[in-house]
Amino acid sequence: MKPLWRQLFDSVEQNAAPLMQDATASPAFADFMKVAAKITNDVNRQGEAMTRQWLHMWNLPAAGDVSSLKKKIGSLENEVRSLQRMVEENQRLQRETLEVAQAAFVDEIDLEIDDNDADEAPVDLQVAS
Amino acid sequence: MSETQTKAITSPLTFLVEQSTKNMQAGWNITKHMLGIDWAKTSQSPRDEVYSDGKATLWHYRSNQVRFGPPVLLIPSLVSRAFILDLQPGNSLVEHLVGQGLDVYMMDWGEPDEADAANTLETYTHHMLPRAVREIDRRHQGSGVTLFGYCFGGVLTLLYAASHPEDPVANLVQLATPVDFEQMPKSMRIAGSGGVDPDHVVDETGNVPAAAVRRSFSFLTPTADISTIADFFEKAHDDKFLNNYQAMTSWTRNHVPFPGAAFRQTVTMLQENNAIVNNTLVLNGTPVDLADITVPFLNILGEKDHIVPPEGSEPLAAMIGSDDKTDLRLNAGHVGMIIGSSSRKRHMPAISEWIVERSYGSGEGPKSAAAAKVAAKRKPRAKKATRPRATKTAAAAKTGVAAKTGVAAKNGVAKKATEKAVAKKAAPGKKAVASKKAASAKKATASTNGTAPANGAAS
After folding, report:
1. Is this model's pTM higher than 0.80 or not?
2. Is B115 in contact with A78 (Cβ distance < 8 A)?
3. CB contact under 8 A, B396 and A29
């Protein structure tokens, strides 16, 4: 049997949960989130601009500078990765094409073997110079 | 004293002692939990790294009981930790599949940062997944791969499989895959469609922060977090409960950032345009049609899934071009399909049974048509390999070089290999041996060391 505090909690939760779920799924909540996201974004941006100005006055790097650097490094890392993928893809394609060509090469040999077999040609490994 | 009298005195005492012990145990467990001592370990199945690609890592799970092929590649979601598929011993999809004799791989996407902000859906569907599938296929001598996508990982596998029909995918398993985004919960669709501007969700790293991802899930069941805490205090004395609680919360409260570019694409293409259902998918500038997926297909839906409701993934089967497609409806939630006692007893066996039925045993031929197709495609020269080597060797030497070179030239490649053979063969007084193995670039040799025996010396 559940303790009394849990029974009380469950009864409140059971009543509150559907209401809260409906609230978070409502258009009003979506509007609220839209406004909240915009305000948060603007406040963060303005706050960052102010602190950057102040820190730059003292010749110190701000969070925005670090973030900008990290973005540039990230972008470079991403570019290197893309190039690496391109190289690998090219190597793979070359390998596959080579395999196909070599398979065709052996096919051709096999065809000629069949011709030779039909003629009952003697086996001769000596290559004419 | 009578027995009834004894009971009347001792039972309150016993009750008091039991309660005290329970409370002491709970207090100790809560202290340990707060301090992070003996925290439940996750992802314990033994595994080896195959390779890593940026933040992503391909893992191979060790097993000495592999009985079936093709291997299974698990693709978790982009926004949650991959270890949900291998939560704990006795509560792990990976462990179950390995136990059924399957060879299991998993792609762990890792934790994106600034370097991954530009990752689009194509980064996953046209680069990372093809590489993983081809690598596994290569490691298993062209056996093909059973792809198993979970949640958003399922979306990625779908898009990949549809846009790469030539790739060696033998079977496709989709678990809780959202395809009809109009059927997804409204609180999950706050971004886009005139709602929150996606640019306002993305942080300074260029990604959607993990906290925002977590918040979007918590809006679905706003009281769930408080209920979980109540559960914790009620059952903290129970070591087993605490272990499960820690393992689960370390997953549910520990999301990963969503790469910004992929997020914008998801909002615009998949959510606003509902592109999968409307068949207007475009990846890398090319239209993608799910009807191009023709491999055996399993769509697993959770009747109680509140994140991806069954209506959200129901249309999938009708859109796939496979002849062999199955809808498996489980009486479980999003995570309950792969975690928990019901999953162990019913859900996971049903899933692995489907996979095994479409696999082939070691030493057998592929059972399914698709697996056979993959095997046939990957081993096109199996029949010719049975030809007697001596004949080939002799004839290869006899037929001369011009024809061979001609074939190679016709194909426009393999010039180096053939030129090498030409040079060696043209050398006066030398004898050449061409063998089947000469077809392989590395093994292509022309023996120049004396007279080759008539029965073929090439190995």
Report:
1. no
2. yes
3. no
